[in-house]
Design goal:
The chain is mainly α. It has six helices and two strands. The chain is globular and about 60 Å long.
Length: 162
């Protein structure tokens, strides 16, 4: 809750879910704020939105990916990926090629302009991450990495159990 919010919090007996202590919410808010700060770097320089930058980053790491593969790797909605791909194609940052054997499957790759964007922006966002993480000790950073990996590999499947 913001300190400038004049609305008092509900009494404890009314709270069924303390959203401000609810881990998924807290992670989402932190992610949105971090992504927003990073988005200013490529947004101001290239007029690009978060989904577009994520597509560029995935294609830099995994050239020849399909839009579905980009969606899987980023956990972004297929519609958001499709729109981002369309904008990047239109602006010449990526190119689409059909798969040799299967004409229905298209592969995406960075164009020279897209590679230039990636090579310009990646070091800047790496520096932003470094500054964000600098408030943690080396041990805390390693622990955070380990905990995130554990939540992703073991926690998510357990969470989805009925």
């Amino acid at each position: 809750m913001s300190t400038s919010d004049p609305t008092p919090p509900p009494s404890r007996h009314e709270v069924l879910l303390d959203l401000e202590r609810f881990l998924p919410y807290r992670i989402s808010v932190l992610s949105n704020r971090v992504s927003g700060n990073i988005a200013r770097v490529y947004g101001e320089r290239y007029g690009m939105a978060i989904p577009e930058w994520r597509v560029i980053t995935i294609l830099a790491l995994y050239p020849g990916s399909s839009a579905s593969q980009v969606s899987e790797r980023t956990a972004m909605d297929k519609v958001a990926v499709s729109r981002a791909v369309a904008r990047l194609l239109e602006r010449g940052f990526i190119r689409r090629e059909t798969h040799g054997d299967d004409r229905r499957r298209s592969m995406l790759a960075l164009s020279a302009a897209g590679r230039e964007v990636y090579e310009t922006v990646a070091p800047l966002v790496n520096e932003m991450e470094r500054r964000l993480m600098s408030v943690l000790s080396e041990q805390e950073q390693q622990t955070l990495e380990h905990l995130i990996d554990r939540l992703a590999t073991a926690g998510l499947p357990r969470m989805a159990q009925d």
